[in-house]
């Protein structure tokens, strides 16, 4: 076992029986946020990480590599669609999946080194090994060839999650992948079946289709990403289909059969599909099964998740939990904030700060999607009188310059108070554009008003100008 600190690596015997103010299990966003805040507040902190590098699933298998892949594929699509760049080429430029993985790997390396530096500078001990709870104050760290024991006044569980793997699917087959193992793909599939049309499934459908793979996306529901505003969900379906993705709704697998050169998926509806590879992306499970929660009287639900109160405290007074392991919203951005809030609760007994009510969603399909606040369907069901302001990117000078005319910005606001109730964006840089409106939407009282976007002056030409266009469009509907 090694200890990641500013000083050279010390023998593991020096860690034996060391006591801390807090022990954090997991170095993903939640664990990192807690560790940094605790350290800056004068606490002696240890982080136990089961992998050889810090960063957790977010850095190594989830958010960072998948978004790096998506960025490379998006640039390839832009190149092949630009008359300026393709002039003289008789066929589109093509990259294989393993080629673009190299770019993703370089980003992961940069992120890992940067985050390791955070622990070094803040004098946080990082102990590499698998954590097991012995009692409410004691953690055993299992490493090859032995174990080490450390103790603390408070424990924080941030072990993250992993892809859900049904027992009736053979994930050891070389053609069957989940969203972690897909990053080990070395061949370039001509046809891939993606089972599960949630955020991860839709993102990878965009990635593989952008690499000119035949993609079949299997959705067990009636429409894609049903938590989105219907208009945005419909736009995603349209653009995935127009790019060549085959979407099958209301389907559930009956069996998955791995063959020498492919995979056959049999469905309960009687349909059968065959492809070179299967990506199973249907749900995630909290990494609590190896922690031995029973030793401290905790029990996870069927998804491996724990219940916590508003201060991220479990039913055991000195044990806290944050991130994917507590369920919704299961976002890296939220997990980091949860970790910082939990750290305040650990030090002060309670936390004054709280996670914001309207958490933005970023979905990195091609084009990308971002939203915050209420959808049209929710406002209609609640009988709230609202109006819509829209700006289509095709009418923006900046989008025309960038050849990024696909998409729109949609503002939902109260007809009487003009308060912004929801923001939905589809298109290039949607996740960045959204934050402009979110900043106004989070203001209290009369400061939250769609009229702000009419009164202010935007740089021109910019994508941000969509707010002025959408605001005028919506206000013109009022009578």
Largest sheet: 8 strands, mixed
Structure annotation, total helices:
13
Low-pLDDT sequence parts: 1-14
Please bin the fraction of helical residues: 25-40%
The gross shape turns out to be: globular
Give the averaged pLDDT, no decimals.
93
Distance between the termini: 70 Å
Share of β-strand residues: 15-25%
The Rg value, from CA coordinates, equals: 24 Å
Number of strands: 23
What structural class do the secondary elements suggest?
Answer: alpha/beta
What is the subunit arrangement here?
Answer: single chain
Topology:
Elements: E1 3-4, E2 19-25, H1 29-40, E3 45-49, H2 56-60, H3 63-80, H4 83-86, H5 97-121, E4 125-128, E5 130-135, E6 138-143, E7 146-157, E8 161-163, E9 176-178, E10 191-195, H6 199-210, E11 214-218, H7 230-243, E12 246-248, E13 253-259, E14 262-267, E15 272-275, E16 277-280, E17 284-286, E18 319-321, H8 332-348, E19 361-363, E20 369-373, H9 376-381, E21 386-392, H10 397-401, E22 407-414, E23 420-427, H11 430-441, H12 452-455, H13 466-475
Parallel strand pairs: 2-3, 2-7, 3-4, 7-18, 9-16, 10-11, 10-16, 11-12
Antiparallel strand pairs: 1-4, 5-6, 6-7, 8-17, 13-14, 14-15, 19-20, 20-23, 21-22, 22-23
Helix pairs in contact: 1-8, 3-5, 3-6
């Amino acid at each position: 076992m090694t200890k990641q600190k500013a000083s050279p690596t010390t023998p593991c015997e020096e860690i034996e029986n060391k006591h801390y103010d807090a022990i954090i299990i997991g170095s993903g966003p939640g664990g990192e946020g807690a560790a940094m805040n605790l350290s800056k507040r004068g606490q002696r902190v240890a982080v136990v990480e089961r992998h050889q590098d810090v960063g957790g699933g977010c850095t190594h298998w989830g958010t960072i590599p998948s978004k790096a892949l998506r960025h490379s594929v998006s640039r390839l699509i832009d190149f092949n669609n630009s008359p300026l760049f393709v002039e003289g080429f008789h066929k589109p430029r093509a990259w294989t999946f393993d080629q673009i993985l190299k770019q993703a790997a370089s980003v992961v390396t940069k992120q890992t080194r940067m985050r390791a530096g955070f622990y070094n500078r803040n004098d946080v001990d990082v102990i590499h090994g698998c954590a097991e709870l012995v009692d409410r104050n004691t953690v055993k760290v299992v490493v090859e060839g032995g174990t080490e024991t450390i103790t603390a006044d408070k424990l924080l569980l941030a072990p993250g999650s992993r892809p859900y793997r049904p027992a009736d699917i053979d994930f050891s087959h070389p053609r069957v992948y989940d969203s972690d193992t897909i990053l080990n793909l070395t061949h370039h599939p001509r046809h891939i079946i993606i089972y599960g049309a949630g955020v991860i499934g839709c993102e990878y459908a965009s990635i593989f289709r952008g690499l000119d793979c035949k993609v079949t996306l299997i959705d067990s529901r009636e429409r894609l990403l049903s938590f989105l505003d219907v208009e945005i969900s419909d736009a995603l379906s349209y653009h995935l289909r127009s790019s060549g993705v085959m979407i099958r709704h209301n389907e559930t697998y009956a069996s998955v059969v791995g063959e020498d050169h492919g995979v056959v998926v049999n469905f309960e509806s009687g349909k059968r599909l065959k492809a070179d590879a299967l990506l199973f992306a249907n749900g995630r499970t909290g990494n609590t099964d190896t922690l031995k929660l029973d030793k401290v009287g905790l029990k996870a639900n069927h998804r491996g998740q724990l219940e916590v109160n508003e201060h991220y405290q479990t039913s055991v007074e000195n044990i806290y939990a944050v991130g994917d392991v507590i369920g919704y919203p299961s976002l890296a951005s939220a997990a980091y904030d949860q970790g910082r809030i939990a750290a305040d609760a650990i030090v002060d007994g309670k936390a004054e700060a709280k996670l914001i009510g309207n958490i933005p969603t970023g979905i990195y399909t091609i084009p990308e999607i971002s939203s915050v606040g209420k959808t049209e369907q929710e406002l209609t069901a609640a009988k709230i009188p609202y109006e819509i302001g829209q700006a289509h990117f095709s009418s923006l000078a900046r989008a025309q310059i960038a050849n990024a005319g696909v998409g729109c910005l949609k503002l939902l606001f109260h007809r009487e108070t003009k308060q912004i109730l929801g923001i939905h964006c589809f298109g290039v840089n949607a996740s960045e554009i959204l934050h402009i409106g979110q900043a106004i939407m989070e203001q209290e009282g009369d400061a939250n008003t769609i009229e702000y976007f009419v009164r202010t002056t935007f740089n021109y030409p910019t994508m941000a100008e969509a707010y002025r266009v959408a605001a005028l469009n919506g206000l013109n509907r009022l009578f």
